Amino acid sequence: MKIFMKIIFYTAVFLNIVTLSGCSTRNKYKGEVIKEPNYSDVIVIKDGGDKEDIFNVHSNQLVKNGTVDHISEMVYDTQKSVYVYLVDKNKTPKIGNKVVALYGNTKSEIKDFFAVKDIKINPSGDKIAYRAFNSSSTDSAQGMKVYDLKNKKYIELKSKVLVSGNLYEWLDDHRIIYYGNIEGQRNSDKVYLYDLSKDSEQVYLNDTRGYCMYFTTIGDDLLFSSRNQDELDLYYYNHKTGQFKFLSDEFEQIYDSTVDSKNGCVFFIGKNEENIESLYKFTQKDGGVNRITYDFPENIAEYSGIAQSKRGDVYFVGMVNRGSGEDVFMYNIRDKSINIISDQEGIYNIYKEK
C-alpha cells in the first residue's frame, strides 16, 4: 500500500530581504549595493517576531550575526559567494513565495510560482533544484525544477518522471538523482539519474523494495527507507556492487539527515516504533545504525534542520522536556556528549554550508 504525503499551503505575498550582515559589494548590473553575509559553516536562525535573529555557530556557542526578514529556508556557499533564500512574509514553515539568490556580486529573484520549497544546491553552487506549486492545492505541483544561477534561467529536463516530494539529491555538479514514477506506466517507481552535461536520463536504482520515503547519498551510494505495506525498512545500497543491505525495520519515519562523506556516516533524525524522535548515526563501513539521544533531550524537532560542522560536531533542535520550548543542541563527536548551546528557549532552524 502506497502512502502519499499531503502538504498544506498558505497564501504567500511578496516581500524582499531587508537586512543581512557582512561586507558589501556592488551589483554591476543595477548599481545596487549587495550585503554579502558573513556566515559560519553552520548557522542558526531564531524567530524573533518581525525579524529573525541569525547566529553563527562557533563550537559550543551561538554568536549573533544580524537579522534577516521572512526567511523560510536557505542554502549557501561562502567560498563561492552564493546565498539562496526562500522568502515568505507570512513565515509559513519551510515554504517561500519567491527565491532570492545572491550569486557572486549580483542579486536575482525567481517568483514565477505560487509557492516553493525544498531547495538544494549543487557542489559548485551554480545550480539549484526545488519543487514549485501553482496554487495552494497539492494538485498544482509543478514538480522538481532546476535553475541555473549563473545564467539566470531554467534548465529544461527531458523527463516524464513525476518526482515524489523532496526525494531528489545532487550527486555532483551535473548529475542529479530523484525518486518518482512515469504517469500511466506500471512498475516505473524507481530512482532516476539526470546528467545535465549529456542532457540524458537513466535508471539509477531499479528496485527500492517498496515505496521510497526517504533517501540521501553517500558518494554514489544510497541510504534509503521504503514502506512495504505497514512496515518501514531502512536499507543501504552500494551502487558499485549493486548490493543491498537491510539495516532496520524499527523506524516509523526518517525526517532529515546530514552526511559525513569523508568518514562514511550519516546522522539522521528518526522516529521509532514508540513514536519517539531521536538522533541516530549510520556507519557505512560496518552498516551499523546506532541511537545517540535517549532522555536528553526528551524530544527532537523533526523539521528544524540538522547540520554537521567542519569539526564534526552535529547540531539539532530539541526540547529538554516534551511541551517545553526549543533549544539548540550539539552532539560532541569527541567525548560523545550532548550539550545545550542556546541561551534561551525559542523557535530555531539550523542550516549548513553545502
From TrEMBL:
Pfam families registered for this protein in UniProt: Peptidase_S9_N
Signal peptide: none
Every Peptidase S9A N-terminal domain range: 83-274
Descriptive protein name: Peptidase S9A N-terminal domain-containing protein
Protein source organism: Clostridium aromativorans
